[in-house]
Amino acid sequence: MEELEAELASVSVRLERSRKDLERLRITRETVTEVLAEMTSEAPAAPPVTDQAPAGDTVGSAYAGVSRQVIGVLTVPNWQPGMGSEVLPSVYRDILEVVADAPGPVRAKQIVPRIGLPAETGKIEGTRSKLKRLVERGWLDEDTPGLFTVARRRAGASPDSR
Question: What's the rounded Cα separation, in Å, for the pair 40 and 95?
Fold first, then answer.
């Protein structure tokens, strides 16, 4: 009986470790899927295929149809007057829309369900990171830590430039 209990304990530990590994793989897969979606939504029309690519210009990906700029890539551009949200990847546009529609400052955990993500810690932290990036680039303001609003300099812009 003691031998079986020891074996059960060992199997339980291995099972829990496997569950944690599976969760990490699930999160990694979601992250890769999001990154690839952002890359494909930003990628301009591919230039014609030639025998030689310009050195240091673009790099092909192991994922079919995806190429990316290696140096100088700015997923979220700095906001400039007249610039609309159409220049942003779709997830950033969704975040801007939620913030713009809110009656006051919003937190990352309030945005996550509104953009269709489960209210899990990883999703909230990922969204908070995106919000901070939007603040750094002038799209949003964060007057109080963790509370985000549309940037004041953009507040007078037309709804199309959200």
Answer: 19
130: nearest Cα among 162, 95, 98: 95
CA gap 54, 57 in Å, rounded: 5
Q: Which residue has the tokens 């899990």?
A: 120
Alpha-carbon distances, residue 156 vs 102, 119, 150, 162 (angstroms) = 16, 32, 10, 10
pTM: 0.52
Q: How far apart are CA 21 and CA 114, in angstroms?
A: 28
pLDDT at 162 over 50: no
